[in-house]
Structure formats: C-alpha cells, structure tokens
UniProtKB/TrEMBL annotation:
This is NAD(P)-binding domain-containing protein. Signal peptide: none annotated. It holds the Pfam family NAD_binding_10. It comes from Zasmidium cellare ATCC 36951. GO terms for molecular function: oxidoreductase activity. GO terms for cellular component: nucleus.
Amino acid sequence: MPETYLVTGSTGNIGRSVVSTLLSLGHKVHAYTRNTSSKSAQELASTGATLFQGDFSTPSALSSAAQGCSGIFLLTIPGPDAPNFASTALEAFKSSALPDPVVVLITSIFNDEKTSKLVNSPNSGLPNKPPHPFVTGYWGMNDAVETVVKESGFPHWTILRPAYFMSNYKDFNIRYIHWPALSTEKKLVAGVTPETKFEMNDPHDIGVFAAHALVGKGQERWEHKGISLASELLTLEEQAAVISRVSGIEVTAEYMDEAEAAKLAEEEFTGYMWFWQKTLGAKVDMEDMRSYGLSVSSFEAYLTKHRDEMIRALHDTKEGKGGLSTDDLLAAAGQHGK
C-alpha cells in the first residue's frame, strides 16, 4: 500500500534522489522546500511530488507538510543551530505524522565510534596542537544532531553517514575547498598516503539508500542503525586516473610530506579530514554495502554522466574564495537547491 513521506532538503542533490526513488517505488512525497516557485521545485512537482514551502525555522509549515506522512527524511543545515533545528523539525513532524513513523537522517561518516574517540583524544590525535575549532565544532554538531534523533522517542530511525561526494570534484565552491590545485595545476594534492582509500559517494546513491530505509521501516538491517556509506573506495591515484580517463586531460596525484600534512590538519578543516582518513582508514566494507542489494555508481560512471561539467571544471582556473560559507556547506551536505 502506498505511503506518504516528507522529504526535507528536497531540491538538493540528495533530496531529489530521495524524492525520485520514493515515487518510483509507488509512494507519495511531500517535498519541503524554501521556495516552491523555484525551477528545481517545479521540476519535482512535475514528477508527482506535492510541494510545501518552509524551512526549519517555520515549524507550523513543517507540521502542515507532515500531515498524513509515515516518515521523514531529515537533512539539516550545517551550523551551530543544527541540533535545535533538528529537534524543532522532529517535534513538528511528530505532531502531525501518522502513528509509528520512521526518521532517516543524513550526517557524516566521521561520526562513527573510531572517529569520535580520535576527536576526543588529546589534541584530537595531532602531534603538536588541536585542529582549528571548526573541526571539533563540525563533528560536535553532527554528533548532537544524531543524539537528537536517537533520543527523540521515535520508534524507528536510521542514520546514514556518507563521506566524500563525487560532485565535489566538479562543483566550483566545494572543489576549491577540497582540491584547490585540480583546475590550476591538474593535481589532486592531499595529506594522505598512496595506500589511503577514500569513501566515494554518488549523491544519488545516498538518496536511494535513504528512500529504502524509509520504506524498510522495522527491518533489522535499518532499525536503529548508523550506517557508513560508500559507492566505491579509491586511492588518490585511482581518483586522478579516473578523472584523466573521463576528461581526456591528465590529472596526477601528489602527497604532502608528513610535516606539511600535520600543519594543514591543525589549520584547516580539509586537512584534518585527510588526517582522519589517513589515520583511521576506510570505514566502509563494500561487501556490507552490496548486501543491501541496491545498485551503487562507480566514480567513473558518475563522471562520465557529468563529463562536460568535469571538463569545464578542469578549465576553470579562476581563483576560488577562501572559507566555508553557508552556501558552501549546504552544497557539501547535498541540501543546496534553487
């Protein structure tokens, strides 16, 4: 029997995938968006989704959107208010949802038990001094949002933890943060080792997993689980080789020396992410991923689909802006939509 699900962040990369997957499975979708008149929102409406306008600061709007819904896909805006937004959203949802609802939340792969232990160790594991406060703040924010869901009293919940988005190699603001030398020098430069594997995620795959977690309410594989996600595991050299093959433009991998990598880990979020990756290794068993029976994309398939964008990115040598703006973070989280 068809169910109705509320999808927040519905016009972003992940949200669109959740919506399309739920509709393809025969269910109904209430798509919650900041602007129902936007092109991306109207595209969702044309596929059969019902639009509701609002954000996490308008609980009454979210409560209206939750009428008759059996579950919610929750994608919060990164920032210090995220836990409060999540709490408000879940209370608003609970007030109008059907009995026995399910919650599916997206956070970060770096909120697993091993990373938590490393972040909370002296200097967060670094040799000389703690990382930039943004790092522990970002980790703490995700941890607090996960706690809100776990302690919300909802009978069914699943937390999905993706890592490195394949879209980060082609989208300018995010590409500049993670891979500043990619366009200008045709290099992927990182503070890792040649053996370090990255958990690569196609945003569409994340949405597919989220939709199936909603529909699979009560199934042991989803129930009260924090699941680290990856579409594929690749070293830095393997990533560079894929970009080269797809674009026809040679891209190489370059590794920072240990001192340079440690210094960057103290100063920048991306540097500490690399430190996490190098120290803890890949957190996803691809056999476990395959056990869900859901198709996932390779990096090569993803870039082939977006080949023109990737080529434009490699030729886009304009200087990027420093820092992490709200829009940058929204894009990185897959929530950014027009």
